[in-house]
């Protein structure tokens, strides 16, 4: 598959990387300007200030986040099934 066909997976991470990157002129990120607070990151995300590196860091972390979200959804679904079992119509 042509890599350019996968452009859509980069949109959200690119926007987040842009919104949380420090602007050289204002010395603030768009996030800080809008919300008047610093975005909260884990310490390892502060290593890169380059927009492309930051975007790629976010893209590489997405599969792990998706897996964690899927597992959390399955746990909640199972707890709902346990709390509200389907009654037999027999």
Describe this structure in words.
54% of the residues lie in helices and 0% in strands. With 90 residues, the chain is mainly α. The longest helix is centred in the last third of the chain and has 33 residues, at 51-83. It is elongated, with a radius of gyration of 20 Å.
Write the layout of secondary structure elements.
Elements: H1 11-20, H2 30-35, H3 51-83
Task: Give a quick set of tags describing it.
90 residues; 0% strand; mainly alpha; 3 helices; 54% helix
The number of helical runs is 3
Largest sheet: none
**Which class best fits the helix and strand makeup?**
mainly alpha
Approximately what portion of the residues adopt beta-strand conformation?
A: under 5%
Distance between the termini: 51 Å
- Average pLDDT taken over every residue: 80
Low-confidence runs (pLDDT<50, min 5 residues)? none
Instruction: State the assembly state of the protein chains.
Output: single chain
Number of strands: 0
Instruction: Give the topology string: H per helix, E per strand.
Output: HHH
Radius of gyration: 20 Å
- Number of separate structural domains: 1
- Give the helix proportion (percent range): 40-55%
Shape: elongated
